[in-house]
């Protein structure tokens, strides 16, 4: 399980230092036992107490060296784990930002944040535990056993035979426990989720008039959960039972096996006592591995999950096409962007989200993208914003061929307003000047006013400096859109992409927001994807999407006259219920 | 403080028998381990005296084996008993938490705005099992063994027993106390800062699209790394202390061993102690130390539980319960004699078949000083009337619904069902009014069980019919397990519209005369919205509908449309009337239905 470890930077010197320390520690363990046995057997033989100071001192010294080595080893392992954890986190975070919002959406924000924060801690914990455990298991028992051999062969054989038995038992029981857990995993998961599921559904239960009687169900399920858990634990604890049982039995056997030759005078007390003290030390490393097994497993898995993200980003980066030198990616009224056969297919088998899209955008103007959900509107916006790399086709921007639109210099041209813009935890002003942190306060205020936030700013006790977002003052959906709009205005970027900016709002807010937005669109390239038809009359050009393809495009009048896909959409929305 | 313990202490009494057994087994486990070394030491020393008969060491031989096996068996049983007891407590705690939350059910969402409070509370309960297993019992076992060891030694020599008592005191009290004092503040700060990191990163990942577009991702990463470094520095210090603490603990053990050597040697020299016991006394120190060394760590965990306990205390304590009472009888006065007129069983039966909902100049304000969320609303809903309520967020729509459901009592005016104040129906309300809101909870069980919640005694046939009426037939026919398909497993396959249909089937099975639709189509695309609404309208013929919506599509299907603003009704009438009379209405309608 440790082979993957060797790829982490700086592990070799760390391993060398720790192996040296483990060696010293093992020797100290043996010496500690020897000197303790010497003192005790001397006293047993009737030696004077005063004469034992040297032996006792040596015992204490060995004891201190042993503990000191442990301390240094932990420290070394911690340092290494800290460094490795830090570099892993840095890589993961950097890659996460490279992969962008699509990836974050797929993996889930909560999962990613937990992975980065708790996963790194677990991974560090794994390194910290695993390195010393691995070395101790490899070195200490061997040395102790060799030494015991010189003292008493019988005991050494008992110890030697026990170890493989112990390991085989542990593996067998471990497998049995896993099988048992897997077998009832489904019921187990349902039971363990039942309570939180009940709490989350409390409101619904209340509406249904079931909230009081549901208490019985919680009691019942909690009880079955306990039974199921206990069934699993009975097997799971068997592995540590076996560990205990076999080591204790082995120590007891060693003690008893030493008794007989002692009675017959075949060995002295000193070696017998030394062996007895060393017997538990022989098993200690293995017992520690058993105790930390689950912690190390967790950490190892977290490490692998993070490696997977880094790997995914590497794959993505490999696909990126180079930007030709000297390419002009800025957007001006004379610019053109052509999409040539752009296709996006998420799964090999599935239907493509975009299929052979050919479009040309030139100069400034208002472009509406309309279609039903699933028609490919959002995918198209994501491709234009550079969040998504098309799986086929190419772009031509200002006469320069590109494989995707992820280059930084293109991103600097655009602002993006999604259906639910994210409001960062910070002041209102911070949120507005997000793309342009150096903006002057009056410019921020002007942008806020233009976006229709003037009344809100005036009503806030701290005005533009009012904290909003997580932990701050909650904003309504319409206000959030206005913040995003102000952000877009302030950044003065020539291209604005909007994805369903008003679909989730109540109709009055939608109306007011539209009135604010329309005049701000002039002099920019605005690409607005929506299923709300009312926007279309204000657009210079309309692109109708259907099943990932461009069904038709033109002005409102042209498309209505043509009686094609657009006309169908329009009539469908005008018909009432009975359609 | 007192309340916090409320979640811990009572359970000791409730399960005193099991806990006593757990404690006993824990003590015996460690005693067996200690006795194994003690007897072994004695056995080989005794053997070394070369007794003429092996029978003289027979007892220690048996003892060594018995203690060896006993320790393993006892430890196994101890862990099972402990976990069983704690799982029983968890079960009780869950029920208790549920009972606390149940009365506030309709207010939790608005009261605890931030994050997933319910998930956090469920986690808190899980966290509390560590209080018992990781902190309380290891400490108690250590204390019992402490007493036993000192008393046993006292039989031989009271003064030496006192010295050993001091040594162990360092391990079980002094070191844990110092450690707790040293690290408490740092621990708390660390936890706070880690929380900060968590929020900062969540914030960044949620807004990752904006970071990418802004071209400032590197700025964020540098800034975040700086915060991580600060946390790491604190962590490093804490870990260094933990290492030193363990080292000091071991040092005390080493000193104890040396003291034991000198004492037993002295005793033997003085003829007070048999020489065969020297090895026994010296060797027993190591396994005994295993009981005392973990106490520091157990105690240092104390602050970890605090946050969980605080949260539980907040939810079960003063403030929350007062508000929960307010839900039953709000403080704004003018309750309209709600408590007096409890409807009879016959009245409830009648209302469950036909309900005439009436609001007469009903008003409500949260808090005495606050603005009125609902201000003098009058509404007459004879059985079968369909009304749409429109307004932006904060217009008072939710409060209006809660008044109708009797969850709130009007401060002025009246809300009645068949002439009886709606609040008086109490738990009978779900027989009269059902609710389909924008995110009905679908439980982690089969589709059939989810629908059955509408009427638990419903037969399979009735469930099937309800599913048909909600037009789930086609969907279910495509699933191999049909109605028995687990909801969560295929959660990805059930779309928003399909989930709403399952919830609709549940509401149809509940079969109440009045149905509240609280923005059930938010987040659905227009086609799905249209299909769902037409299913709803078709399957609820004859029911009174109160439909809160943010769109005007299908307004023409309703008998009356209410426009609310700041708690008041701004416009009302049928669709045709409003189209003719109100230019503002026409403008808005135009957005939903562009007329070309």
UniProtKB/TrEMBL annotation, chain A:
<dbReference type="GO" id="GO:0005886">
    <property type="term" value="C:plasma membrane"/>
</dbReference>
<keyword id="KW-0812">Transmembrane</keyword>
<dbReference type="GO" id="GO:0140359">
    <property type="term" value="F:ABC-type transporter activity"/>
</dbReference>
<keyword id="KW-1133">Transmembrane helix</keyword>
<dbReference type="InterPro" id="IPR003439">
    <property type="entry name" value="ABC_transporter-like_ATP-bd"/>
</dbReference>
<dbReference type="GO" id="GO:0034040">
    <property type="term" value="F:ATPase-coupled lipid transmembrane transporter activity"/>
</dbReference>
<feature type="transmembrane region" description="Helical">
    <location>
        <begin position="235"/>
        <end position="263"/>
    </location>
</feature>
<feature type="transmembrane region" description="Helical">
    <location>
        <begin position="130"/>
        <end position="150"/>
    </location>
</feature>
<dbReference type="GO" id="GO:0016887">
    <property type="term" value="F:ATP hydrolysis activity"/>
</dbReference>
<dbReference type="GO" id="GO:0005524">
    <property type="term" value="F:ATP binding"/>
</dbReference>
<feature type="transmembrane region" description="Helical">
    <location>
        <begin position="53"/>
        <end position="73"/>
    </location>
</feature>
<keyword id="KW-0547">Nucleotide-binding</keyword>
<dbReference type="InterPro" id="IPR039421">
    <property type="entry name" value="Type_1_exporter"/>
</dbReference>
<dbReference type="InterPro" id="IPR011527">
    <property type="entry name" value="ABC1_TM_dom"/>
</dbReference>
<keyword id="KW-0067">ATP-binding</keyword>
<dbReference type="InterPro" id="IPR036640">
    <property type="entry name" value="ABC1_TM_sf"/>
</dbReference>
<dbReference type="InterPro" id="IPR027417">
    <property type="entry name" value="P-loop_NTPase"/>
</dbReference>
<feature type="domain" description="ABC transmembrane type-1">
    <location>
        <begin position="16"/>
        <end position="298"/>
    </location>
</feature>
<dbReference type="Pfam" id="PF00005">
    <property type="entry name" value="ABC_tran"/>
</dbReference>
<feature type="transmembrane region" description="Helical">
    <location>
        <begin position="12"/>
        <end position="33"/>
    </location>
</feature>
<feature type="domain" description="ABC transporter">
    <location>
        <begin position="339"/>
        <end position="572"/>
    </location>
</feature>
<dbReference type="Pfam" id="PF00664">
    <property type="entry name" value="ABC_membrane"/>
</dbReference>
TrEMBL record, chain B:
<feature type="compositionally biased region" description="Low complexity">
    <location>
        <begin position="321"/>
        <end position="340"/>
    </location>
</feature>
<dbReference type="InterPro" id="IPR003439">
    <property type="entry name" value="ABC_transporter-like_ATP-bd"/>
</dbReference>
<feature type="transmembrane region" description="Helical">
    <location>
        <begin position="244"/>
        <end position="265"/>
    </location>
</feature>
<dbReference type="GO" id="GO:0016887">
    <property type="term" value="F:ATP hydrolysis activity"/>
</dbReference>
<protein>
    <submittedName>
        <fullName>Thiol reductant ABC exporter subunit CydC</fullName>
    </submittedName>
</protein>
<dbReference type="InterPro" id="IPR027417">
    <property type="entry name" value="P-loop_NTPase"/>
</dbReference>
<feature type="transmembrane region" description="Helical">
    <location>
        <begin position="131"/>
        <end position="153"/>
    </location>
</feature>
<dbReference type="InterPro" id="IPR039421">
    <property type="entry name" value="Type_1_exporter"/>
</dbReference>
<feature type="transmembrane region" description="Helical">
    <location>
        <begin position="277"/>
        <end position="296"/>
    </location>
</feature>
<keyword id="KW-1133">Transmembrane helix</keyword>
<dbReference type="Pfam" id="PF00664">
    <property type="entry name" value="ABC_membrane"/>
</dbReference>
<dbReference type="InterPro" id="IPR011527">
    <property type="entry name" value="ABC1_TM_dom"/>
</dbReference>
<dbReference type="GO" id="GO:0034775">
    <property type="term" value="P:glutathione transmembrane transport"/>
</dbReference>
<keyword id="KW-0812">Transmembrane</keyword>
<dbReference type="GO" id="GO:0034040">
    <property type="term" value="F:ATPase-coupled lipid transmembrane transporter activity"/>
</dbReference>
<feature type="domain" description="ABC transmembrane type-1">
    <location>
        <begin position="20"/>
        <end position="304"/>
    </location>
</feature>
<dbReference type="GO" id="GO:0005524">
    <property type="term" value="F:ATP binding"/>
</dbReference>
<feature type="transmembrane region" description="Helical">
    <location>
        <begin position="21"/>
        <end position="44"/>
    </location>
</feature>
<dbReference type="GO" id="GO:0045454">
    <property type="term" value="P:cell redox homeostasis"/>
</dbReference>
<feature type="domain" description="ABC transporter">
    <location>
        <begin position="357"/>
        <end position="591"/>
    </location>
</feature>
<keyword id="KW-0067">ATP-binding</keyword>
<dbReference type="GO" id="GO:0140359">
    <property type="term" value="F:ABC-type transporter activity"/>
</dbReference>
């Amino acid at each position: 399980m440790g082979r993957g470890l060797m790829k982490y930077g700086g592990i070799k010197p760390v391993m060398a230092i720790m192996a040296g320390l483990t060696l010293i520690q093992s020797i100290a363990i043996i010496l500690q036992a020897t000197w303790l046995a010497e003192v005790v057997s001397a006293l047993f033989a009737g030696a004077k107490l005063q004469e034992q100071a040297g032996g006792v001192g040596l015992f204490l010294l060995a004891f201190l060296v042993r503990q000191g080595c442990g301390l240094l080893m932990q420290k070394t392992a911690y340092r290494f784990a800290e460094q490795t954890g830090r570099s892993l986190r840095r890589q993961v975070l950097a890659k996460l930002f490279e992969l962008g919002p699509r990836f974050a959406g797929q993996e889930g924000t909560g999962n990613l944040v937990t992975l980065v924060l708790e996963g790194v801690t677990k991974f560090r914990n794994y390194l910290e535990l695993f390195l010393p455990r691995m070395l101790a298991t490899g070195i200490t028992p061997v040395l102790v056993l060799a030494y015991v051999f010189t003292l008493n062969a019988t005991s050494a054989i008992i110890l030697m035979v026990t170890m493989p038995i112990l390991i085989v038992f542990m593996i067998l029981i471990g497998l049995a426990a896993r099988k048992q857990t897997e077998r009832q995993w489904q019921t187990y998961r349902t039971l363990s989720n039942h309570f939180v599921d009940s709490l989350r559904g409390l409101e619904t239960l209340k509406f249904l008039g079931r909230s009081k009687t549901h208490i019985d169900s919680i009691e019942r399920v909690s009880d079955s959960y306990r039974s199921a858990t206990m069934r699993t634990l009975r097997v799971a604890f068997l592995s540590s039972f076996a560990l205990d049982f076999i080591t204790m039995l082995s120590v007891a056997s060693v003690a008893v096996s030493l008794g007989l030759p002692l009675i017959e005078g075949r060995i002295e007390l000193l070696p017998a006592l030394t062996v007895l003290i060393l017997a538990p030390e022989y098993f200690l490393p293995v017992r520690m591995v058993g105790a930390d097994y689950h912690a190390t497993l967790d950490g190892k898995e977290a490490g692998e999950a993070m490696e997977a993200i880094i790997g995914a980003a590497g794959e993505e980066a490999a696909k990126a096409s180079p930007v030709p030198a000297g390419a002009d990616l800025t957007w001006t009224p004379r610019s053109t962007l052509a999409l040539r056969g752009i296709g996006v297919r998420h799964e090999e088998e599935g239907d493509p989200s975009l299929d052979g899209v050919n479009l040309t955008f030139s100069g400034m103007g208002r472009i509406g993208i309309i279609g039903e959900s699933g028609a490919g509107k959002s995918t198209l916006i994501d491709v234009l914003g550079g969040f998504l790399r098309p799986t086929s086709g190419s772009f031509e921007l200002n006469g320069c061929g590109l494989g995707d639109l992820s280059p930084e210099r293109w991103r600097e041209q655009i602002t993006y307003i999604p259906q639910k813009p994210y409001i960062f935890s910070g002041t209102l002003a911070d949120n507005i000047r997000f793309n342009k942190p150096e903006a002057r306060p009056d410019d921020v205020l002007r942008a806020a006013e233009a976006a229709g936030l003037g009344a809100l700013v005036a009503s806030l006790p701290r005005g533009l400096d009012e904290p909003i977002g997580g932990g701050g003052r909650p904003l309504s959906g319409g206000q959030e859109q206005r913040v995003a709009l102000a952000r877009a205005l302030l950044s003065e970027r020539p291209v604005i992409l909007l994805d369903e900016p008003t679909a989730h709002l109540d109709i009055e807010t939608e109306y007011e927001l539209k009135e604010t937005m329309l005049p701000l669109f002039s002099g920019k390239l605005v690409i607005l994807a929506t299923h709300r038809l009312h926007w279309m009359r204000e657009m210079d050009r309309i692109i109708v999407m259907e099943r990932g393809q461009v069904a038709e495009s033109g002005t409102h009048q042209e498309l209505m006259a043509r009686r094609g896909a657009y006309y169908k959409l329009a009539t469908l929305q005008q018909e009432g219920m009975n359609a | 403080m007192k309340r916090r313990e409320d979640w811990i202490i009572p359970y000791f009494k409730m399960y005193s028998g099991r806990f006593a057994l757990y404690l006993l087994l824990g003590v015996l486990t460690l005693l067996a381990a200690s006795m194994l070394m003690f007897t072994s030491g004695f056995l080989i020393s005794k053997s070394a005296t070369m007794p003429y008969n092996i029978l003289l060491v027979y007892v220690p031989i048996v003892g060594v084996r018995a203690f060896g096996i006993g320790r393993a068996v006892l430890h196994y049983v101890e862990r099972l008993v402990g976990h069983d007891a704690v799982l029983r407590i968890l079960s009780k705690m869950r029920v208790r938490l549920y009972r606390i939350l149940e009365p506030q059910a309709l207010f939790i969402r608005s009261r605890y705005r931030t994050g997933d409070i319910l998930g956090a509370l469920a986690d808190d309960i899980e966290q509390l099992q560590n209080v018992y297993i990781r902190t309380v019992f290891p400490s108690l076992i250590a204390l019992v063994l402490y007493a036993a060891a000192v008393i046993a030694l006292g039989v031989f020599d009271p003064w030496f027993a006192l010295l050993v008592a001091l040594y162990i005191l360092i391990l079980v009290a002094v070191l844990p106390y110092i450690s707790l004092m040293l690290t408490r503040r740092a621990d708390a700060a660390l936890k706070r800062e880690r929380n900060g990191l968590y929020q900062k990163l969540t914030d960044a990942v949620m807004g990752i699209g904006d970071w990418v577009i802004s071209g400032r991702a590197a700025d964020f990463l540098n800034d975040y790394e700086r915060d991580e470094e600060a946390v790491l520095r604190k962590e490093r210090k804490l870990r260094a202390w933990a290492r030193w603490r363990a080292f000091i603990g071991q040092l005390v053990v080493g000193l104890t061993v040396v003291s034991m050597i000198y004492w037993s040697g002295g005793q033997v020299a003085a003829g007070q102690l048999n020489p065969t016991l020297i090895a026994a006394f010296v060797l027993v120190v190591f396994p005994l130390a295993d009981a005392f060394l973990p106490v520091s760590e157990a105690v240092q965990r104390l602050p970890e539980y605090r946050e969980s306990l605080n949260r539980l205390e907040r939810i079960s304590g003063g403030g929350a319960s007062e508000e929960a009472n307010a839900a039953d009888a709000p403080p704004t006065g003018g309750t309209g004699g709600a408590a007096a007129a409890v409807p009879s069983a016959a009245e409830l039966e009648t209302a469950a078949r036909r309900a005439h909902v009436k609001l007469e100049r009903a008003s409500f304000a949260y808090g005495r000083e606050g603005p009125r969320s609902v201000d003098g609303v009058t509404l007459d809903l004879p059985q079968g009337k369909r009304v749409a309520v429109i307004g932006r967020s904060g217009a008072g729509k939710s409060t209006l619904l809660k008044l109708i459901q009797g969850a709130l009592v009007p401060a002025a005016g009246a809300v009645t069902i068949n002439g009886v104040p709606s609040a008086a129906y109490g738990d009978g309300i779900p027989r009269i009014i059902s609710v389909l809101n924008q995110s009905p909870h679908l439980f982690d069980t089969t589709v059939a069980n989810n629908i059955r919640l509408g009427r638990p005694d419903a037969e399979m046939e009735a469930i099937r019919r309800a599913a048909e009426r909600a037009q789930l037939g086609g969907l279910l026919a495509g699933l191999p397990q049909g109605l028995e398909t687990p909801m969560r497993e295929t959660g990805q396959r059930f779309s928003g519209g399909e989930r709403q249909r399952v919830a609709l089937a549940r509401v149809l099975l509940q079969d109440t005369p009045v149905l509240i639709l609280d923005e059930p189509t938010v987040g659905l695309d227009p086609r799905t919205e249209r299909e769902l609404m037409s299913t709803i309208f078709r399957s609820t013929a004859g029911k009174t509908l109160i439909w809160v919506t943010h769109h005007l599509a299908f307004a023409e299907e309703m008998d009356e449309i209410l426009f609310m603003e700041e708690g008041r009704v701004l416009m009302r009438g049928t669709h045709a009337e409003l189209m003719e009379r109100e230019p503002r209405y026409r403008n808005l309608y135009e957005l939903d239905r562009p007329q070309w």
